[in-house]
Amino acid sequence: MTTTLASxxxxxxxxxxxxxxxxxxxxxxxxxxDAKDKFAVPVKVIKVGETFPxxxxxxxxxxxxSSASLLANGPLLVTFYRGNWCPYCNLALHGLxxxxxxxxxxxxxxxxxxxxxPDASLSTQEKNELQFPVLSDEGNKLARELGIVWKQPDSMKxxxxxxxxxxxxxxxxxxxxxxxxxxxxxxxxxxxxxLYLEADYRKRVEPSTLLEWIAQL
Length: 217
What we know:
The chain is an alpha/beta fold. Helices cover about 40% and strands about 15% of the residues. Helix 1 (about 5-20) packs antiparallel against helix 4 (about 85-100). Keywords: Antioxidant, Disulfide bond, Oxidoreductase, Peroxidase, Redox-active center.
């Protein structure tokens, strides 16, 4: 029986919360509620039927990759993740890698984007053995155009410090902003055909759902 991504994410949550230092679970839950409140009515988020913004972003080795060059080869699946420090992101990326051949068979390219600098993106790519482009959206510029940027509460900063996570070093800025996990299916004409947005970063779209989207193109 195939294990769903959701079950893996739930197991990761249970394991982390069971081992987390006192006060950490409560702070994280409050932060999640903050994100859910801010995106309860996602009025600024790009919508199905709209044109996905064009972009040129560096890949994990610093080479610029443009949306035009990608779309020239067919539809795109664009997934945003918070960073290589996020265990949920790593599970989600690994789940996508496991279905990569199926995406390719359907003529769809997969690309993952985070605000991390290329060196951190390279670490993500190597750690998860990803065989698809991992791009750096420095300053969350593209994510901001899409309306999916979340400024984390300052209450989270001591937790990052406690776990030795330096977002300023990872991202090259001290905004403490991350994208809300989101995935977009963009057709060859650059139009958003489907999207998944979830303010609770512990939840992600199932790869099987993405394949259902693709079948409807």
